[in-house]
Amino acid sequence: TIIFAFPDFIKNVFEYSLNRSQGIGKSNIVWFFITHDFILFVLLIFSLVNIKRNKFLGLLSVFGILFFFLYQDIYYLYLNFLIPFLVLSFPEFYSSIQRNFDLQKAILPTILIPFLLYSLITYTAGFMDLQKVNLVEITDAIKKENPKVLYGVNDITPSLSHSTGVPLLNGIIDTNSNIFRKGILNSKKMTADAIYQKAIIVTHGYSYPMQGVEEQVVDEIFDKEQVKKSCKLIKSFPVQMEGAENRLNLLRCF
Questions:
Q1: Predicted local distance difference test score (pLDDT) of residue 197
Q2: Distance (Å, rounded) from C-alpha 238 to C-alpha 208?
Q3: CA–CA distance from 124 to each of 33, 79, 240 (Å)?
Q4: What was the pLDDT predicted at 147?
Q5: Residue 21 DSSP class
Q6: CA distance 178 to 20
Q7: Is the dihedral of CA 5, 6, 12, 13 positive or negative?
Q8: Measuring CA to CA, which residue among 89, 90, 131 is closest to residue 108?
């Protein structure tokens, strides 16, 4: 990488990745970690308390926490690097509990097993239908409209381009909102191009009728005023997202 792509390495890692703005709120990630992986959370605390006995695991936990607070756009999966090391601290944690509290051998496993089962059930229930959509139904809806291009959120629009054979607007695959925040792409220009090129827009939305909340376009990659003036909702699909968004909407701009 350094020999063949050093300028791109500096640009994409240091200028972009390490400085991109926050996506998911850190408080949500902390709460997710505690509620879904309580045993790992306890092991993290134990590694910090036990740092004098095991400097390697303790310092790794310290640097993991520093990474969490200093890096802006943290995400759940970025914490995976800690898991193997937290697991390695478990035998010491187990023996420490047994030594300090003089418990019978069966008590600690009896306490741990329900927590493990709870984590398994929580993950299974929470992720089984996460971001699951009927790709065939969405593909058919797009083909029926016969657009010239597709423009939309990066989590599904490239897949829809492949399944429908409709090209992406200006050939741009990555429409992550951070790219727009950095000024690499401009939402007003991209939206204007989409309207001019007779696109179908793929966007996330909110639909909570009981609370009186109905928003067809919530993503930063669109200029909402242009979309409202020139585009019409043709199809809306329910979807379970990690955030408050619960719809995937198709809007025709021609």
A1: 97
A2: 11
A3: 15, 19, 14
A4: 96
A5: P
A6: 6
A7: positive
A8: 90
Q: Running DSSP on this structure, what letter comes out for residue 212?
A: T
**Contact assessment for residue 132 and residue 238, using Cβ atoms and an 8 Å cutoff:** no
User: Residue written as tokens 């914490």?
Assistant: 79
pLDDT along the chain (254 residues), means of 10: 91 78 78 88 94 92 89 77 91 88 82 90 82 93 96 96 97 91 91 97 93 91 95 94 88 96
Kindly report the three-state secondary structure assignment for every residue of 95-107.
HHHHHHHCCCCCH
How far apart CA 201 and CA 198 sit, in angstroms, is 10
- Looking at residue 90, its pLDDT comes to 93
Whether the Cβ atoms of residue 119 and residue 37 lie closer than 8 Å to each other:
yes
Model pLDDT, residue 92: 92
Phi-psi region of 166 (alpha: psi -120 to 50; beta: other; left: phi over 0): beta
Closest CA to 147 of 92, 88, 201, 98: 201
- 82 within 8 A of 65, measured Cβ to Cβ: no
Count of residues in the chain: 254
